[in-house]
Amino acid sequence: MPKELTHxxxxxxxxxxxxxxxxxxxxxxxxxxxxxxxxxxDVLYYLPFTDPNYQRFIKIPGIxxxxxxxDAFLIIRQIIRGITKIQYYEPLLAxxxxxxxxxxxxxxxxxxxxxxxxxxxxxxxxxxxxxxARHRRLETVLDMFVCEHYRPSFxxxxxxxxxxxxxxxxxxxxLCLLIGFEKPDVLAASIKKSYQTFFTFHNLARSRxxxxxxxxxxxxxxxxxxxxxxxxxYPQLKKKMAMVSGELRFKNPRTGEETHTNIENLFTESVExxxxxxxxxxxxxNSENKEIPLLFQQFDIIADSTRLCL
Length: 310
Hints:
The protein is mainly α. The chain has one domain. It is built from 16 helices and two strands. The protein has a two-stranded antiparallel sheet. The longest helix is centred in the N-terminal third of the chain and has 29 residues, at 89-117. The model is unreliable at 305-310 (pLDDT under 50).
């Protein structure tokens, strides 16, 4: 699954494509919520070990991603069912666009990344550790490709928290309640803490001094440590952009289907699928039938087509 800059970029492209829709002004007025939503699925991976609920909450990202076959669109279904009842209707719409782009970006890029780097869930501990490090390094290279070729401007991600127009503690409490999580107040506090840790780590991963050290120490680091250092953006990784340039050939790890494509096509596919679902939701929100059963039928079709072992 791609890293944060790739998710941010695709979310912003999708937002520009949603002009003249229910989402249009919301994604512009609440850009920070759009981008926070675009990485929400991953944020609890950064929950500090010291959190008293760590063992419980660290399982949530896997559930959201559908790692063990869960419905990856369940969070979207829950939000749409109750979106008109929440205090933060407009920022939640922007946040939901980010959630949708995350799902489709992961589903689109995952077969390529997984095939190129090995079994992330290998039962052999040593092989698994090396595969995780390669997986994360390729995601980092992809982020660098986005910055090199598309020149997005995100600034310091911590500003998304500091400059938010929304009371994030209250927002996450209502979101957790809407989704149906237990102890929404406790989970909301852990989510906010995780975002802070996430963005602090992101800034450290771009630090010139730390990336310099990581690069030169890399040959002697253990595979376990490389699972972490592979997330660092050291300049020498630009030499590896050939991994994401030109024609890409890979097999879907679930279906075995072979694909010949390129990175630009994967970006386009992520955007188009996200826009398509957002427009379906937009039509449903503006219809008289608030039960929107047809929307959920379409969710089932989309969920079946994007189900992956993430």
